[in-house]
Specification:
Number of strands: 8
Order of helices and strands: EHEHEHEHEHEHEHEHHHH
Number of domains: 1
CATH superfamily: Metal-dependent hydrolases
Radius of gyration: 18 Å
Helix content: 40-55%
Structural class: alpha/beta
Number of helices: 11
Distance between the termini: 32 Å
CATH topology: TIM Barrel
Strand content: 5-15%
């Protein structure tokens, strides 16, 4: 079994065929997917999709969305975490974090939202799904102040030293399509050398497509012309990770599944919970 620990099936790219995308993923062997929200407007949609298709979801405000967040969105997040605290499909607070790559963003505002959401996750007893983009040191600074219950550092691309600090705090590191590019030397070396308990798989669909979704080498270089990424690509990405780590594919699938269940403990119960068993909205 494979678990896609990070995909955005509520994105506009999937509006016409999210059900078909889930079916393709399951046909490929991806039995579970985690849908993180990116802003308050997505809280209901990710929860609805998770219940409709037997998936998992996380609630949070993405660092690239904080500039457009409305007054009261943090209060709303607190309210929905409380309202759905007994929903077994709510597995984390996310996607939250810091982005120091995109120019012109208000870092102080990002930090305020990040720390506030760490506190909400701590109070809810939930792990976090972290957006890490040239921000590993500042994210770690926040975790030293507010001790969250572990989670996943999504699309990790920091140094080996930074990776070790996250692993020491009980985090798993997410790897996806980026590791399929031969020129992604740092990511591939981390994916190859990290200790077994540290690695989970993700697609970040519809984003971060693997190299084979580009039509030509030139398009791979300039980032144009790619097809939409989707969770069905996860097993092939996993096969690339298995080759990097020198293990067979079933071993890698079992390892990354066990790591995902450890990072997001509520996933464990979902292995036996059918979509129909969780259709009723949480009223608590």
């Amino acid at each position: 079994m494979w678990i896609d620990t990070h995909c955005h099936l509520d994105a506009p790219e999937f509006t016409a065929d999210h059900a078909a995308a889930v079916m393709r993923a399951r046909t490929a062997g991806v039995q579970q997917m985690v849908l993180p929200a990116v802003d308050a407007a997505h809280f209901d949609s990710v929860r609805r999709l998770a219940h409709q298709h037997g998936l998992a979801y996380a609630l949070g405000i993405h660092p690239l969305c904080v500039a457009d967040a409305q007054d009261g969105d943090l209060d709303r997040l607190q309210q929905v975490l409380q309202q759905h605290r007994d929903d077994p499909r709510l597995v984390a607070v996310g996607e939250i974090g810091l982005d120091h790559f995109v120019p012109g963003l208000d870092r102080a505002l990002q930090e305020r939202y990040y720390l506030a959401q760490l506190k909400l996750a701590r109070d809810a007893g939930l792990p976090v799904i972290l957006h890490v983009r040239r921000s590993a040191d500042m994210l770690m600074k926040g975790l030293r102040r507010i001790d969250a219950a572990g989670g996943i550092a999504h699309a990790f691309n920091g140094s080996a030293q930074q990776a070790a600090l996250f692993v020491e705090r009980g985090f798993r590191l997410g790897f996806g399509g980026a590791l399929t590019f031969e020129r992604a030397l740092q990511i591939r070396e981390l994916a190859r050398t990290l200790p077994d308990p540290a690695v989970v798989l993700e697609t970040d669909a519809p984003d971060i497509p693997p190299h084979w979704l580009y039509r030509s080498a030139a398009e791979r270089v300039d980032g144009t012309g790619q097809a939409r990424n989707e969770p069905a690509q996860l097993p092939r990405i996993g096969a690339e990770l298995a080759a990097l780590r020198g293990v067979d594919v079933p071993t890698l699938a079992a390892l990354t599944t066990a790591n995902a269940l450890a990072a997001l403990p509520r996933l464990q119960a979902l292995r036996w919970l059918t979509p129909a068993a969780a259709q009723a909205p949480s009223t608590v």
